[in-house]
Amino acid sequence: MERSIWSGTVSFGLVTIPVNLYGATRSNDVALHQVHKTCGGRMRQLRWCPECQAEISLDDLGKGWGVGKGETIPLTDAELAALPVPTAKTIQILGVVKAVDPLYMEKAYYLQPEAAGRKAYALFYRALADKGVAAIGRFALRTKETLVTVQARDGILALTTLYYADEVRLEHERYDDVALTDTEMGLATMLVEAMGEADLRGQRDGYREALLALVESKVAGLSPPKALPAGPNPIIGDLMATLRESIEAARKAKAA
């Protein structure tokens, strides 16, 4: 088990559940280094203090608040830890909702109970699962009080951090008033049905695999893999014919 990134309690009414927070996702991105194109040398980022005219280490880095005209007010770790925030060590449950708009979702975690809180944790889990709702709460994580949703999922409470309303861009153009015929709508519906259910667990990162293959070929002194031919240009003209062809292709792929 990986190291927990936060420890505290879940406040569910007057019930207090001691929990630990763990990441539920991980990134499999391939990290590429920045290099000098001329010689291939790897770039190095310096942490430079202009006041001391010297490079500093990570251990010497602190936090501060800019107050304008290049002036910064230093803030110590002790001062930040002592902020009078009631959610510093507690996830306060504010209420429940039937569903959460995916636009508000940010990052997923797992909440695991400590031994003393297993029964209270199980009760909270079962109450959410039986009612089919998600709890909305907030707690202080790193440098902000974070809005979260807590949901019962596969035997464990999953916590997802949420964006606040003023962080979500809700102003956008609308496209649900475009005039469509019944025939067009019927074909589009048939195409959606023909596609069938997607299997998220079976998806693979094709770009990552191609990038690793390129790196392996260069390490082995081989020629890089050949690029795939360009995909077809978008077909906008005969929308009806394109929909019918798409339905047939989707049915064949589903059958295969």
CATH class of the domain at 6-25 and 82-165: Mainly Beta
Please give the radius of gyration in angstroms.
26 Å
- Global structural class: alpha+beta
Low-confidence stretches are none
Looking at the overall shape, the CATH architecture of the domain at 6-25 and 82-165 is Beta Barrel
Order of helices and strands: EEEEEEHEEHEEEHHH
Task: For the structure shown, list the relevant keywords.
256 residues, two-stranded antiparallel ribbon, 5 helices
Compact description:
This protein has 256 residues and is α+β, with helices and mostly antiparallel strands.
What does the model show?
- This protein is of the alpha+beta class.
- Among the domains are: 6-25 and 82-165, Ku70, Chain: A, Domain 2; 182-255, no CATH class.
- It contains 5 helices and 11 strands.
- The chain has a 7-stranded mixed β-barrel.
- The longest helix has 17 residues, at 239-255.
- The radius of gyration is 26 Å and the shape is extended.
- The mean pLDDT is 88.
How are the elements arranged and paired?
Elements lengths: L5 E7 L2 E9 L24 E2 L4 E2 L7 E6 L2 E5 L1 H5 L8 E8 L7 E9 L4 H14 L2 E8 L2 E10 L2 E7 L19 H14 L10 H14 L19 H17 L1
Parallel strand pairs: 1-7
Antiparallel strand pairs: 1-2, 2-8, 3-4, 5-6, 7-9, 8-11, 9-10, 10-11
Helix pairs in contact: 3-5
